[in-house]
Structure formats: structure tokens, C-alpha cells
Amino acid sequence: MDAFTPLQGAIGGALIGLSAALLLLVFGRIAGISGILGGVLPPRSGETGWRAAFVAGLIAGPLVVAAATGNLPAVELQSPVWALVPAGLIVGFGTRLGSGCTSGHGVCGLARLSPRSIAATATFFAVALATVYVIRHLAGGQG
Amino acid sequence: MRILICFLIGGLFGAGLAISGMMNPAKVIGFLDLAGDWDPTLAVVMAAALAVSVAGYAVKKGRARPVLADAFQVPSAGIVDARLIAGGALFGLGWGIAGFCPGPAIAALSTGRWDVALFVVSMVAGMAAFSLMPKAK
What we know:
The complex is a heterodimer.
Chain A: H1 6-27, H2 33-40, H3 49-69, H4 84-97, H5 102-111, H6 115-138
Chain B: H1 2-20, H2 25-32, H3 41-61, H4 82-98, H5 102-108, H6 114-132
Helix pairs in contact in B: 1-5, 5-6
């Protein structure tokens, strides 16, 4: 298990918050990644250009960090590869059904004290905590 | 110009995910695993992101319109309904299994890994399946 990294967490978190604040103040939009990505997919609703540019930036940002620091940030999978398929399907379906994810509800929604976002965030954190507990400590799979 | 600025704002978000360690499912699951060797980093990331975005929303209150758009498009306060809770629960289940939520998964495509791409393709398929449902809106 990785150690607690509060400094990197605070710097990275502040950049995420800055991105959300700028998207709001410059374009009047919520930085909800599932909504932005969903808006790029057909059937398309409204303008897609800014959404595609934002998604491209999401991928380019880590590359800039990698170029500056000399190594690409670690991505260590915690599940078998096959499990990524059902997990991805329900993350995609669930975030659209619930109108948001960690960014839209968790950061932007909580920032403006939206009751819907508070309820959604409490729900997905509670279910994710329970899921990890079951997988790691009850099923004994990947602990 | 608008497109370039949006790209740069997205870049800030992606850089933040990379620096914070949230692109890494091991860090995310490390937070979600309260009964294990708990890693509180995700809480620090959320707190820092909230502190800055709250300031952004405070600035918004004094402004009639965004700098480069006609109006703010912020969802109006709706009711907490079954659909919201069901969607949140499904998302939480998938998030707990993989340790990826949409932003970090897309940002992690930067590593060029096929297993990350497999998750993103599945996630996009899940979103597409939702749009194909009757009354998806």
C-alpha cells in the first residue's frame, strides 16, 4: 500500500479545484467529467467542441506532469483485468443515470451545497466503501 | 481560442489528477479500504479541490455572466429521487471494484495502457447504453 502523500494531494487537489473554478467562471460550465464525456458521445446534445477539448486536456495534463518530473504517474490496478469490463460498464451507466460522478457531484456539487450532489456523493462513497470492504476483507480476494 | 482555453483548463484538471495520485487506483482503493492500511490522501485532494472551487463559486455570485459565454449553466436545485440514488449506487459499486472514476480513468489513458483503455471503452459503452434507453433524458 502506498504511503499517505498529503502535499501532492493538496497541490493536485488545488489544481482540480482551479480547473473547476475556471470552467465555471470562463464558460459557465460545471466540471463534471461524466457529463462532459457523455456530451461528446452520440446522440450529441449541444456543442461538443469544448467538451472534446477538455477531455483531450485531461489526457495531456498528465503527460506535461510526466515531462516535467521525468516519470509518468503510477497506475497500479487493484482488480483482475476482466473485472474492468463490468466495473467500467456500471461506472458509465451509473454516472449518467445519477447525473454525475466524483467531479460533478463530489467537487462542483458540494462546492455549491447542492442537496442532490450531497445525496449522490454520500451514496457513491458509502457503496464504494462497502464494495472494497467486501472484496478485500470478506471475499478475501485481493487483500 | 475558446477550444484552446478549454483544452488548457482540462489540462489543469488532468495535471491535478496526476500530481495528487488520484490517477492511480491503488491510491483510491487505499482510501476506500478503511479496514486496511488506510491512505487518507483522497480526503486531502477533495478538501483542497473544494476549497478552491468554493472560492470560484463565491466569485460567480458577483457576476452576471461567464467571461466567454452568455450564461452560467449550473443545474437548478432539484429533488433527491430514486434515479439519483440508484445511479450513485451503481457508480459506487464500479468505483469500488476498479478504483477508477471517469476523470482519473480518462487521464490514465495518457499511460497508453491497454487495460486502462479497456476500462474507458467499457465506461463509454455503459454511457452509450444509458443514452439508448427510452426516456434517457
